[in-house]
Design a protein that fits this description.
Arc Repressor Mutant, subunit A; SH3 type barrels; 4-stranded antiparallel sheet; elongated
């Protein structure tokens, strides 16, 4: 009977085990020693067979560790300079320890772990992974959480993960973007500045290299795959993200729509609970940032909603309802 495949070890566990192993050695470990002993590699290591795929995995993991800000060193063996097979790898503990004036209590560490649990693995940022990996590998104690269940944030947009990767690495991205009212998507080359969740929607705030200015791109309007290029760009200042968030809040505050809702309807229940909504009898005043998204939402309520103003929004909702009626005969 053929041998059963080795159990899959999650990437976070493999990187964590690698960091622990490289922290625990003073003289360093060779590639063979790492592949044959460290959790996540040893399960697939063959002492007599071909380990080329495993070696390539280790090379990628080295890059990931360095991108997380971990000081991975290589040490050449005396008399064997340039021989990659005799290189030894280690993480100098003194360069990796937390500063003496930075400490965390068990309760604080527990809260950090719970915060990380909110995000599924694919959405956890490089900064968060680095912080949690460092805390765990330094042996910082944590108390057992009192919560039996932790909330999770699932990012459904396929564009999120490649954009997050490009943002972490400061690489340009290319994608096709379909603007509201246009019938064909346009190709964009963008330097990502921040991924922002605004009113339940994910947006990419970035510098559009073709338009020579910053733009907000709604992730749901990205058509097809996002290509992360090898071209890098200089990181933007941290205040650029805050500026983008303030601008979105300004637009939200300034843009309002007046609608008439059917009393007791689902539309009244849901729309009345939107943030900053005010009402006058059966009339609701709604705030919004994207007119097309609001039009889609209002059209979904059918006859339960009548848009009074602005006229452009009223026409957008009417157009959607007419196209729906035409599609269904």
């Amino acid at each position: 009977m053929p041998a059963s495949p080795a159990p899959r070890v999650p990437v976070e566990e493999r990187l964590f085990s690698l960091v622990l192993a490289l922290l625990a050695t003073e003289s360093g470990l060779t590639k063979t020693e790492i592949l044959s002993t460290v959790q996540g590699y040893r399960q697939r290591y063959s002492r007599t067979g071909d380990n080329a795929n495993l070696e390539r995995q280790f090379e990628r993991d080295k890059d990931d560790i360095r991108e997380l800000g971990i000081p991975l060193e290589t040490i050449e063996s005396p008399g064997a300079a340039g021989n990659n097979q005799t290189l030894r790898y280690r993480i100098p503990k003194g360069a990796y320890d937390l500063p003496a004036d930075v400490t965390f209590s068990a309760e604080e560490t527990t809260l950090l772990n719970l915060a990380a649990m909110v995000w599924r693995e694919g959405s956890l940022s490089a900064e968060s992974r680095r912080a949690l990996l460092k805390l765990r590998s330094l042996g910082v104690a944590a108390e057992d959480p009192v919560l039996g269940y932790a909330p999770r944030v699932r990012v459904r947009e396929a564009a999120f993960e490649p954009l997050r990767t490009a943002l972490d690495r400061h690489h340009l991205v290319e994608f096709d973007y379909l603007k509201p009212g246009e019938h064909s998507a346009r190709h964009r080359v963008v330097a990502p500045i921040a991924l922002i969740q605004h009113r339940g929607r994910w947006l990419l705030h970035g510098e559009d290299r073709n338009a020579h200015g910053t733009r907000n791109f709604l992730l749901r309007r990205i058509v097809g795959p996002v290509a992360v290029t090898s071209r890098s760009y200089a990181p933007f200042p941290p205040e650029a993200t805050a500026t983008a968030q303030r601008e979105l809040e300004r637009i939200w505050t300034e843009r309002t729509a007046e609608v008439l809702v059917e009393p007791g309807s689902d539309a009244e229940t849901r729309l009345a609970k939107r943030r900053d909504t005010s009402r006058e009898g059966d009339r609701l005043v709604l705030h919004y940032t994207d007119a097309e998204l609001l039009a889609e939402e209002l059209a979904s309520y059918g006859p339960e909603v009548l848009v009074l103003a602005p006229e452009s929004l009223r026409e957008a909702v009417r157009d959607r309802l007419e196209r729906t009626a035409l599609a269904h005969g």
